[in-house]
Design goal:
Helix content is about 15%, strand content about 30%. It has about 180 residues and is of the alpha+beta class. Among the domains are: about 80 residues, SH3 type barrels (Roll); about 35 residues, no CATH class. The longest helix has 25 residues.
């Protein structure tokens, strides 16, 4: 109760100070410089940073996005709940780690439900399917890529398309 009374008194004092400034300004008094501020209230400061308009993220040629699977479900051939089932997608891998999928695109269906096209970890390679966005966790991105050249026996690590590490590699035997 005491805190409430202090807040009310503070607001009333601030209002009285502002009213006094307004009355002085209208009564013909000249007040050089900025208008006076109520006692104890600091002068406003000029912002050090003024953010611009938000812009949508543009596709970057060297950035890949991925997301963890939060809810097990079925990947479909199109962004539609009635589309053909392509694969079952679990929250964990066979090694019992979090299942993470590469995000290839997104689209909303006729009902406004958002679907995400993802790379599936199944054969044949490069297989993809559509999952509801609600089945995935937050997006993250990777701006590095490892290129292994078996003809030249080199491995090159690229960041944003530029090589940052290169090494010779060898091919082992199945044993």
């Amino acid at each position: 109760m005491r805190l409430r009374r202090l807040v009310v008194l503070g607001v009333a004092a601030l209002a009285a100070g502002v009213a006094g400034v307004a009355i002085g300004a209208h009564s013909g008094e000249s007040t050089p410089g900025p208008a006076p501020v109520a006692a104890g209230v600091p002068q406003p400061v000029t912002p050090a940073f003024k953010p611009g308009r938000p812009e949508p993220l543009r596709p970057a040629p060297y950035r890949s996005s991925f997301a963890p699977v939060r809810v097990a479900g079925t990947a479909r051939s199109a962004p539609d709940a009635r589309a053909k089932v392509v694969a079952r997608v679990e929250t964990t891998t066979p090694e019992d780690t979090t299942n993470i999928v590469l995000v290839l695109g997104r689209r909303a269906d006729r009902g406004g439900r958002v679907w995400v096209k993802v790379r599936l970890a199944s054969l044949p390679n490069s297989r993809s399917g559509w999952l509801p966005r609600s089945a995935l966790g937050g997006y993250a991105s990777v701006e590095t890529r490892l290129v292994v050249d078996l003809r030249r026996l080199t491995a090159t690590l690229l960041r944003r398309g530029r090589p940052i590490f290169r090494a010779r590699v060898g091919v082992g035997r199945p044993q």
